[in-house]
Write a structure and sequence with these properties.
Blueprint (H helix, E strand, L loop, with lengths): L8 H8 L3 H21 L3 E2 L6 E2 L3 H8 L3 H40 L8 H14 L9 H28 L18 H18 L6 H5 L8 H31 L15 H37 L4 H4 L1 E6 L5 E6 H20 L3 H29 L6 H34 L6
Antiparallel strand pairs: 1-2, 3-4
Helix pairs in contact: 1-2, 1-7, 1-9, 2-9, 2-13, 4-5, 4-10, 4-12, 4-13, 5-12, 6-9, 6-10, 7-13, 7-14, 13-14
């Protein structure tokens, strides 16, 4: 569950301060842990132990709530997937550009490096990978993602510890993500709201918990095993997040960069390893998040136009120099998936703002997917009477999280507006 969102936590802690920053992280972790336990009981319906399985998050919402809420869940879930793929394009291109930028800094060469060309490179890779059938089901993808995320996270943490131990806060010409100067209390408050969105993004993994639970054996009961796993996973993740955020803040002070890795200039080889690890991780992660969108559109089109060969017919392509090995090509799949990759790449070019975009995704997805639907499913399954003590407590929690998400979204939008005032697409 540790992803690229960990890179923005030092900046988030900086905006919130030594007390409010860690407290906010812990509060988000406790809320996520609580709703994860509710979600674990939603895997089966109507009984959490003997009921019928729900294989996906949306299946669970459909079984417990049905009706309009299923559509709202689908809208929130797929909008989040689109946002994440755009965010991953931004992050990966930023890391690729960082490798080039650090090299020219050492060579004392012209260090103006645009991320646009690296977004095109990343998009070109995705154009190829998106045509690989069942790419997201390849078992080694999860292993590779875990190794890469651990690699760059520990490198960032280790470099921060080393800098704190050295007792220095040197800028060293680093290309830290630009932070806006504090010009007013209102401006500072917007940054605080945006920081909350960054923390929310770091905990936005509830939608995968049902799929993870589906891999567990039925004895002992999946919900009990999943609750223990959630406790261990979220507790460990929170401790690591606190270390990365607080040590990063201690290393850079008020100059903490939006992307932790961009704040360092030495050692070059280790930073290159970290940035390459982020890139490799996100190349695979993009496909993992994009495949459900591909599947939804393709299955819907096949059902709506079953007689259209452009949509339904697969063509066998044989490659002679590979021993006659062949693969299936579907014209609609080729056009649709390529168009999706191109659109997300262009969106990333238009909005290449790492912190702001991740905060916006976190703000938009945390309340509906992490809080609202798990609580509503629990209320429906437990048949809690309206205005009972438990019902009012859960609704109060949901309302509070909604308000937090709204202010985080407001801060993210304001940051986006400010960034667009000085950024010129395809020129900067």
């Amino acid at each position: 569950v540790v992803g690229s969102g960990v890179l923005s936590l030092a900046w988030a802690i900086t905006q919130l301060g030594w007390v409010a920053g860690p407290v906010t992280l812990i509060i988000f972790s406790l809320i996520t842990l609580f709703t994860s336990t509710l979600l674990a009981d939603a895997y089966r319906h109507p009984d959490p132990v003997t009921g019928q399985r729900n294989y996906t998050y949306m299946d669970a919402v459909r079984a417990h709530l049905g009706g309009l809420k299923v559509r709202l869940c689908g809208l929130a879930q797929y909008a989040n997937l689109v946002g994440v793929t755009v965010g991953y394009t931004i992050t990966a291109s930023m890391c690729m550009a960082s490798v080039r930028r650090k090299k020219c800094l050492h060579a004392e060469d012209n260090c103006h490096v645009s991320t646009t060309i690296y977004m095109i490179i990343f998009g070109s890779i995705q154009l190829i990978l998106c045509q690989v059938p069942n790419f997201h089901k390849l078992s080694w993808i999860s292993i590779l993602a875990a190794v890469m995320s651990i690699t760059y996270s520990f490198i960032g943490l280790g470099l921060s510890v080393a800098k704190v131990a050295a007792g220095a806060q040197l800028n060293e010409g680093a290309e830290a993500t630009t932070t806006w100067p504090t010009v007013s209390e209102a401006h500072r408050l917007w940054k605080v709201f945006q920081a909350i969105g960054n923390i929310a993004f770091a905990y936005a993994y509830s939608t995968v918990l049902i799929e993870i639970q589906d891999t567990l054996k039925s004895s002992p009961a999946e919900n009990k095993t999943m609750k223990r796993a959630s406790f261990v996973g979220i507790s460990t993740t929170t401790i690591f997040y606190l270390l990365c955020g607080c040590v990063g803040y201690a290393a850079f002070g008020e100059d903490a960069p939006g992307d932790l890795l961009s704040g360092f200039h030495q050692p070059l080889w280790l930073l290159n390893v970290a940035n390459v690890s982020v890139t490799i991780h996100l190349i695979g992660a993009y496909q993992v998040f994009a495949q459900p969108i591909f599947s939804l559109v393709e299955s819907s089109c096949r059902q709506r136009w079953p007689e259209v060969k452009f949509v339904t017919t697969d063509h066998q392509i044989t490659i002679p120099f590979l021993g006659g090995t062949g693969f299936h090509v579907n014209c609609f799949r080729l056009v649709w998936r390529s168009a999706y990759v191109i659109v997300t790449t262009v969106l990333a070019m238009l909005l290449p703002f790492f912190n702001v975009f991740l905060a916006l995704i976190g703000a938009a997805s945390f309340w509906p997917l992490t809080v609202y639907f798990p609580i509503e499913m629990y209320i429906a399954r437990a048949k809690l009477p309206k205005f009972s003590f438990s019902w009012m407590g859960l609704q109060a929690l949901s309302l509070a999280c909604l308000l937090v998400s709204l202010v985080a979204a407001a801060g993210s939008v304001e940051g986006l507006i400010q960034s667009l005032k000085v950024y010129h697409p395809f020129k900067n």
